[in-house]
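Support case: user asked for a sample of complex input and structure output to validate their parser. Sending the pair below.
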Amino acid sequence: MPMKIGEKPFFGRVDDALEKTFMRTAMASAQDRLRGRKLDATVRDEQIGDWEEWRSAGEEIRRHTLENLDYYLNQLSENFSRKGGHVYFADTAEDATRYIQEVAKKKNAKKVTKAKSMVTEEIGLNEALEEIGCQVFETDLAEYILQIDDHDRPSHIVVPSLHKNKEQIRDTFRDKAGYTGTEEPRELTAFARSQLREVFLEADIGITGCNFAVAESGTISLVTNEGNANMVTTYPDTQISVMGMERLVPTWEELDVMVNLLSRSAVGQKITTYVTNLTPQLEENSVDAPKEFHLVILDAGRSNALGTEFQSALHCIRCAACVNVCPVYRHIGGHAYGSIYQGPIGAVLSPILGGYDEYGELPFASSLCAACSEACPVRIPLHEQLIRHRENYVAQKGKMSEKLAMKAFGIGASTPSLFQGAVKGLPAIMKPLVKDDGISSGPGPMKLWTAVREFPVPEKNNFRSWFKSHKQEGES
Amino acid sequence: MEEWMEMKVSLFITCLAEMFYQDVAKDVVEVLERLGCDVDFPRGQICCGQPAYNSGYRKDAQKAARQMIRSFEHSEFIVTPSGSCAAMFKEYPELFKEEPEWRKRAEALANKTYEFTQFIVNVLHIEDVGAVYPASATYHTSCHMIRLLKETDAPFRLLKNVKGLELLPLENSYDCCGFGGTFAVKMAPISEQMVDEKIRHVEASAATLLIAADNGCLMNIKGRIDRKGKPIEVKHIAQILNTRVEGRK
Amino acid sequence: MAEGIVHNKDAFLNRIASKLGRERTEAVVLPKWKHQPQWEVFKNDGADDLLGTFRKSSMAKSALVIQTERANLAATVKEAIEKYGGGLVVTTKDRRFAEYGLESLLADSKTHVWDAGLGKRNIEIAKQANIGVIFSDISLAESGTIVQFNDKDIARSVSLLPVTYIAIVPQSTLVPRMTQATQMVHQAAAEGKDISTCINFISGPSNSADIEMDIVIGVHGPVEAVHIVVADK
């Protein structure tokens, strides 16, 4: 499954990640920089007024759009096709890739350029196109780096190559593409420019994702910095844009709000260098515009969230602000999530799209610190949705031992006499474990605690008795 | 403060404090009394249910919650030395969203619940409790206190007025310490990395004392500090506030 | 032109409606949003304030800003072209060049004016060009952004392929932020007018921070950008 990363089970992936010292240092420092930039462009930017108002605006727009998703998708489709654009509603990833393969075959396409798009990663589009003999060129710098490094997988939804440092990139360029320069980002970037310059102009098909589609005009909006998306959508005769079905806004006025939230939250920019808005208008004899424009609208599990407690997960605009503040992501990086969607939103979204068999552990990989919910520009209650996933997971797949333990907890925590008995009995039970005023190794689940830290020694005295006599003293 | 003005406060001591940190519990009682509160201790209280709730066991958490709602039904104010447990009380209405009767009772409970420092600063309107504690300290903001209770200020106001206490800034203070209840055991390898980074930042602050207002975080951080044998003391904020300047009440 | 082909729409949308627990919605009225902070930004700023903000934000996006009068525009553009290395220049086909007294630029032997009739030859020239000169249709103070409504004459390539783009920014095109620009497009769309096939918001030269979060200017689009603001009122 293309959304999936790696074959190992969750804890194997975590162990692998924790060993990668460089990757972890890179993640932590990238997080600190991204978080700082975001704060400068949001809560600390006085020009835009109260950031909380913007978040509320975003939430309000997203909620309304998702509540009326069928209506706005219909409107989008009508407006997109009115001027000659083709629309394919894809139920599954396979449907989407099959349709795109057919277009490519019909066009006899040899070279395909792509702008950065997580949704095409999700459906495994590159593999599908290579299967029918197309040469696929990733043109976003980060995606280009991954592609020439033997198709390494993305570790971050906004900066997919975040886990690599410049020395590693230099070595990859040298080994795979004959690069002879230094590890300076400027020089590495110039190399990518020179490698792709001609490819852009020769490509038969250009493929993009879609940051937002505008229903009222049938427009695809791309929010980028490098200029590659413009190259991809300007020169090939055929353009294909792939969008998750939830990625649309009713009108241009809402587009404004969403682009502002995205630019500032993702990269700390007031606006990205390019916001490129493409609408089919194919009768016009432009020299530098596609002659054929396809829009693929993808479900692939998204509708599982509709009408459920997870509906607001579809409000996500893929800014990665939650990823950039997540203390778990900070230490394990992106690949350990085993999904191209990582961090808190990945832990919420991946089980919706891919099920609990594959991604059931992810909602537990969170300390529920709520930094994600606080950072989300459209106020998705991410940490609460992680709890909702846990509820579903234990109901479907919970271990009997844990269920019994929690049942016992429920009984103990609602029966004062039992609890008091436990509090009184605790010191005696734990006494054999106490060494030098601490507990350094315990049995059962306690072992997992004491593997890392000391466990506190239970109090011998009873607080309730103390309180009682304390009050009596006060009264006398 | 006049006798008749005495504020009636019900103490929700939390299961962790009752089992492991009675000194903290006693300090909370003594500080509140010194500030003129009449403290009572509803004996039916047990645990807020957060361990079950956060693990996905909603029904079992509801059992704990009902017991707590019944125990504190008659209280005027509920005060607890834990931002996290206070936040769990605030979560009760959501826990009973499908049971209107209990939901109403849950809302009443949530509305009168305060974390310890929050109560002193925002309800009693006291920022100087007359404490003295000469030390170089730093403060760990617990996630649930700052993000769920949205109380970012009260502990700092109180600590600022503690005589002799030098409060040093803590780098990446907003990052979680890695406790997260069952997370600390279920995801032990990740939790370990998080608490280690927290301790590195505490060490970098040059403080010799770490203060926090949540026993869960403290249990985690202190457990790791002790395991590594670091020379850093760890205390709950109540232990700092329950010290006195000579000659003052 | 014929309408495009739409596949699998009804089954897809019916599923969505049923998951949402209702029939397909036939008519939805856009609500009046409770939160609209976008209209407050620079609300009371006059033309000079907007110009000052545009300058600052353009520079923050690594675009050079030059202010000039209409009478001096031709000379200013010429100077800017020389400053950025001269050579082959490509411009859009835009009547404003004449309106702003820039006939000499168009007539220069080293200038190519986009001509859709020449087909792909234009792209070859634009690729060789050192400088592309365009007009901004709407200009955003907040972010130092110029907006282009591209079509067969106002070609996309002019601001994309040359090493440097020079945008002429009539001061009257300045608005506070993206809000005012999208409102104009929204109004056109709501009136059933066709909107441009490519509405491009451009803020300075292309760039990337994909390698260790270090910002590098000049990736696949232009490496340099110049915004020439011309007083036109």
